[in-house]
Design goal:
By secondary structure, the protein is mostly helical. The chain has twelve helices and no strands. The protein has two domains: 160 residues, no CATH class; 74 residues, no CATH class.
């Protein structure tokens, strides 16, 4: 089980929420359950409504397009490179396709370097198979990330539109969440008023258990955010740290919060 800074941070988060739950007692239990229920039930609908409102303002989309434009090529090529790397690691496709070819082991190593974004000895690959100016050289060059990576204009425009839509969706999620939290804060005032005469009792001690559970929910939220930015440099770093720990990896790949939000009917 890998132990890194992200794992330690999540453990500290869960401990802090458990301590907060103990201090807040019954109020924390009622307010927390109410808030999470509101978020899970209302967020899908709120996101769609906010997104529709943002779509009415062309200047919003223009601003987002301007912001993402410098990163389109790197994001898309990085996504393609990651997909090919996954095929290399999981399917054994290259081993099967290169069987029987003279010098296939050496070629496989060079091809894997290319798929993983490492330095490719293109001359060696050309000499081993296709000769000078081969397609494999062009493919290797296209998969190298860095300055000067450019996509065909049609592909770039389509990719840019998808990225812009996704960014606007994320903005809508954030705005929808903030609005729901504001609504929950008003509801919390009524809960606090209702419990104004409440004396601390054994039931308040359950706040520790609720705080622990809430901490785990926050971890699921954090993993959702990681998956949302997984194609960025920061996101790839976070994903690498997540996959070092078997528990976090399982939670990342089987995020119950994502499942609930995606399957929650819109009001």
């Amino acid at each position: 089980m890998g132990l890194n800074g992200l794992v330690i941070g999540f453990v500290v988060l869960i401990l802090l929420t458990a301590l907060r739950g103990r201090d807040r007692g019954l109020y924390g239990i009622l307010y927390g359950i109410m808030t999470w229920a509101m978020v899970i039930i209302l967020l899908p609908t709120a996101t769609v409504r906010v997104s529709d409102k943002l779509a009415e303002h062309e200047e919003v989309r223009a601003k987002v397009e301007e912001a993402v434009d410098p990163y389109v090529d790197v994001i898309v090529v990085g996504f393609i490179s990651d997909k090919i790397s996954g095929m290399v690691a999981e399917s054994g496709l290259l081993n099967d396709s290169l069987k029987g070819i003279e010098g296939s082991e050496e070629l496989l190593k060079e091809y894997e370097k290319m798929a993983l974004g490492e330095e490719l000895d293109a001359d060696k690959v050309k000499d081993m198979i296709f000769g000078e100016g081969s397609d494999i050289e062009k493919l290797g060059e296209s998969l190298k990330l860095g300055d000067g990576v450019k996509l065909p204009s049609i592909v770039r425009d389509q990719a840019k539109a998808i990225i812009v839509d996704y960014v606007i969706y994320l903005i809508s999620v954030v705005i929808g969440y903030i609005l729901i939290k504001l609504l929950a804060a008003f509801a919390g005032m009524f809960i606090k008023s209702f419990l104004s005469d409440h004396k601390r009792s054994d039931i308040d001690n359950l706040g520790t258990l609720w705080g622990f559970a809430e901490g785990i929910l926050y971890v699921f939220v954090a993993l959702l955010l990681v998956s949302a930015v997984a194609q960025t440099g920061f996101g790839k770093l976070m994903v690498a740290m997540v996959t070092q720990n078997n528990i976090l990896k399982y939670m990342y790949e089987n995020n119950v919060l994502r499942f609930v939000l995606e399957n929650m009917p819109k009001i």
